Amino acid sequence: MNILLTGGAGYIGSHTVIALSEAGHTPVIYDNFCNSNKSVVERLEKIIGKPVAMVEGDIRDTPLLTKTLQNHEINAVIHFAGLKAVGESSIIPLEYYSSNVYGTLCLLEAMNQARVKNLVFSSSATVYGDPQYLPLDEQHPLSATNPYGRTKLHIEEILKDLKASDSEWNVLCLRYFNPVGAHVSGLIGEDPNGVPNNLLPFIAQVAAGKLAKLKIFGNDYSTPDGTGVRDYIHVMDLAEGHLAALSYLEGLSDWTAINLGTGQGYSVLEMIKAYEMASRIEIPFEFTLRRPGDIAACYASVEKAKSDLGWVAKRGLEDICVSSYKWQTYRSSIA
Length: 335
Ligand code: NAD
Ligand code: UDP
Description:
three-stranded mixed beta sheet, globular, single chain
């Protein structure tokens, strides 16, 4: 199939390009590069060994999107594009609503015009808000504590209304837990601007000597060692989850949301230890106050992914940390 990946040059999108290509699909990247670098396309071509189609554009440009869908004879869209920094979303909420919500409306309009009605959407575990129980299954009540999370909730609702209005649409929302790690080549990976907000990229930069010390946000949570627990999923497992999603999409009778996680939670201290083992570098850290808005623990129920998609995450913490460090080393060498 010919698959359009909005935001395909970004962290998850670029890894999905590899998984799609290896499975015999033809990926087409559509990205405005507001949070990625054009050089990722060359690196993807090096990994895949063939050219990767790329269109530079904003998802709010409906005419260009429509033309792209038609020119590349697209069969399905995976919609990764959007802004994703939780903290920033409270500072510039309108940009988040514009890029994420309005951008999705423009994409849907273009898809309608081009008669492409198969869509996989990048949602997030953030739509569950503060967990009322664990593991989080897809029936857990939804809520959001910041504008970023609200954009994901709004988009899920829009897609639900769309499916109810027109059964020809096949719509699947994938709720990602914490994507981490990198492709085994070490040529692509997560490349945050400025000081990373997320744990793994921060640890990676401490290991590379770019940052001096990790600050652990709180050691008084009701978790086994007092530090926050999350469900860290290898980005290549996540990418392969999209392959399973595309097969599942055709003829989907209802709007559907499925968790993509591992079902296993790890604490901050466990992640540091795993990274130290993988990189053979000590990660200095200190405990500081809790980060406002943080939750103690969050991990997925993976039953629906298993039963409906036939997909489970295969890679463990060692793969995550080794690939992350390999990418960080390469990234530092080209900086
Ligand atoms: P990313 O920022 O690396 O990739 C997003 C890509 O979209 C970037 O290449 C960016 O340039 C592009 N983009 C942004 N706005 C655009 C626009 N208006 N038009 C065209 N392109 C645009 O992010 P990611 O980590 O790869 O995340 C992909 C998706 O998954 C996002 O929707 C994100 O909200 C969601 N998600 C990510 C995580 C995570 O921790 N990384 C967790 C849950 C959900
Ligand atoms: N964390 C931390 N120091 C950091 C970044 C994150 O202690 O510099 C903790 C954070 O409090 C949480 C876990 O690491 O318990 C994962 O945080 P991340 O931001 O990666 O994911 P999220 O909280 O958005 O799920």
